[in-house]
Amino acid sequence: MNKSAAEDDPSLGERGSGTVSTLFGATVLLFFILLAVQITLALHTRTVVDAVASDAARDVATAGDSGRALASARAEQSIRLQLGDLGDDATIAIQQIAIDGGSAIQVRIAVAAPSALPPALGGRAWNPSISRTAVARVEQLQGGPT
């Protein structure tokens, strides 16, 4: 009777199985890390766009009637500058709207969400648009007490 080496030592039949399971576990771990990074990038971008829109709406609303057009142009330029590379392709709309018997400035910004993946690996396949709107009331001076 000729016994093989695997029959003598039962552990030899499982040789290499630790490598396969480690490789699978590392792949799953890297996937979840990439998912967490992608979610963090999207949330950070939403926060930045929201803050930039709010600042721009407030700046234009406090400019006064005579300087509102110039303030709108400066606000758009400031938005693009603060958004960096995202600002190059951003869609920006600044308009005056009627609200509760008064007026307000509405700033709407839409940008493409950044991706943690390079374009060669499908980084542009998942590219939703992030859109944020901010509204700031235009304050009117009222006559003081007489």
Helix residue percentage:
40-55%
Could you describe the largest sheet, including whether it forms a barrel? 3 strands, antiparallel
Backbone CA Rg: 28 Å
The share of residues in extended strands comes to: 15-25%
Count the beta strands: 3
Element pattern in H and E: HHHHEEE
Which regions contain 5 or more consecutive residues with pLDDT less than 50?
A: none
- SS content category: alpha+beta
Averaging pLDDT over every residue, what do you get?
83
Strand order of the largest sheet: 1-2-3
Number of helices: 4
Shape: rod-shaped
Ends apart, CA distance between termini: 118 Å
In total, how many domains does the architecture comprise? 1
Folded structure, characterized:
This protein is of the alpha+beta class and 146 residues long. It has one domain (20-137). The protein has helices at 5-8, 17-61, 68-83, 85-88, and strands at 91-99, 102-112, 129-137. The mean pLDDT is 83.
